Amino acid sequence: MIRTPAGDVAVENIKIGDMVVTWGNRHNTETLREVVWSGSQTVRVRPHLPDDEAGYPVRIVKDAIADGVPYKDMLITAEHCLFFDGKFVPVRMLVNGRSIFYDKSITSYDYYHIETAQHSVIMADGMLSESYLDTGNRRNFHQAGNVVRIGSSPRNWADDAAAPLAVNRDFVEPLFHRIGERAIASGHAPRSEPPIVETNADLHLVTKTGAVLRTMREANGHAFFMIPPGIEEVRIMSRTGRPSDMVGPYVDDRRHLGVLVRSIKLFEGNIARPVTSHLAPDAPAGWHDGGYMPCKEPCRWTDGQATLPLGHRHPTLMGLLCIEIIAGGPYNVEKDNIPQNDTRLTA
């Protein structure tokens, strides 16, 4: 329900030319703006993907943020932003599983956007939210009405947003915990069982021929592997997890991370040589750049199947590969069984 001069109106009933109430970011003043575009899209959930990427709508229960905010249960997409303290925050970063959660009973729905000439802070269901900002995905929507909007260039958050986009942990995490504490105090129970997690990375190597090399031993954060003669490249294989799952949704890092590797050495006979290709700017396939790093030393995350060239090998000597693992896990190993249900999303 979108706030208009005539009261709250269902978003699917708002047409091009209608006026909506918007809020000024700096002065908290109300202004009327005209709707210049409205569109809808049908979503079908892809349950094999992580919840925030699968397409499940996010349900924000009545009074989740404050008394009367929202004034009824609110359904929005995971990337849709809410407005807090002068900034927009994607709702996926606030999902606590109690008062804000992915509604997995809904696997197909229609959702609606309205656009004003300038990106705006609007009110939906009593909650400050955002109007549509065309960042290049307008073609994905079915446009309502007979007027076709053409000739507009995609916009961006840095230059065209009504308020800054906040995805930094130091802003979002306190907000996440504040809403979560309110949910617990209000008696909201967890909406689902906690995910099944595994701390064992199942670390192993795979050669180009598909041979699997298991750890010979692990000690003091180091994993040791025997490498047969002639093997000049392996893949470091492991389970993967995302910081947004491992730490919390307030961490805006949704890459699939395997293990965090610092130093690597290959021992052959009485010679030990470092293997450093994983730290190079042009690292082989399967190594991530930057992002969530719990240490400051040179290191890099694998993606669960990172290529590691070993260089020229002695033709007859067995090698001992030592990989220093700084961090990894926990890993989500849960598989959900998703019920099927078609619903229209109009909030």
TrEMBL record:
Name of the protein this chain belongs to: Hint domain-containing protein
UniProt xrefs under Pfam families: Hint_2
Stretches assigned to the Hedgehog/Intein (Hint) domain: 1-135
Domain of life: Bacteria
Membrane-crossing segments per the record: none
